[in-house]
Amino acid sequence: MSVRDGGQLRERLGQLISLIEVPKPSGSEIFGKISFKVGRIEHRGHLIEFFNGKGLPMVVTPAWTVCEDRFIVGAYPQMVIATIDRLADQKLSETSILAHPDVIQARKVVGNGDAGFSFVDSRAGLRMTYSLLLPLASAVASMAQGQGIELDLSSIPSLATLTRHMFADVRCSRNVEDGMVSLSYGSWPLPGSPGLSANVATVATGISILLPSLSRARELSKRTVCAANMRGIGQAMYIHAMDHDEKFPKKLGELIEENNVTSRQFVCPSSVAVPHEEPTEKQLTECYVYIPGSTTSSDPRNVILYERFDNHQREGVNVLFQDGHVSFTKDIEHVKQLIEETKDRLGIKKKKAAKEDMTQRCIASPAVS
Description:
By secondary structure, the chain is α+β, with helices and mostly antiparallel strands. The protein has helices at residues 6-20, 77-88, 92-95, 101-110, 122-146, 159-163, 194-242, 253-257, 281-284, 332-346, 348-364, and strands at residues 35-43, 46-54, 63-67, 70-74, 116-120, 169-176, 179-185, 288-290, 303-307, 317-321, 326-329.
């Protein structure tokens, strides 16, 4: 910032500092444990002052100085030192924000701001954020894998993909007859300051990095819940068989009538189905398909219950076997083969064919008067 009278500015800053450094009442609940002090360091012949609050969790250390006809302000003293070095080494024109290609492009669109100018390098911020979020995503995936949940980190987009169409956020303010006009230019079409836009961009990027992992974890947890539902149904079938000559029920509704399961256990969390207080047999099979006919002494390879194939985005299905264990199988064609083999062992196809043959014979036989 250019200043016309550096001496007058220093005088005003001295008055402000004297107010900051006035001792606060020790009995005050707010200021009793907090004190304010202005520190001073010298760099290349320039006095740099910075604000320090003791007992206060400050995340910045505001610093300032007057260098020739410029008033330099930074979030930290190191920023002010870096600016002094740039001025002293005659590199300001090369390293100035105004020389940034995104700023040059933005000024062609929004013009020059005579009242204010703001700049945020969104791509640089994203690079720093990415370096933090990627290890975080990896840590989350490792913890999830320790619980048996597989997460694919390859679904996280690369930094080049995320920054390909990003550019800096610039805001210019101009004085007009009726007040002030502010114009913004950036890769995120959001009103307000470039800092707000860049923060939103950073948050959005973080979400885009973590969301695939989180959504994957959510889907895998639904599979686990689904498997637990089917395992509970299998246990209920064995309880039913104890009182029915080792036979599993003919219909799933019998398990609910015996209060061995609830209707909620027949709903896959990945589906759109909802539990019913008094479900019909059709409603109980909206998510799971039951193959009746097995007993406790049947072939353990028999499929008792399996999911509808579109429950988990056709990535696989949970299958309940005769011995009570549940397995998630990704190969749907293999599941179909297991179902056909189960029906062959139970003679379901033969019974169906015999029934159809009997129906045909009844139709073909002449009516007896």
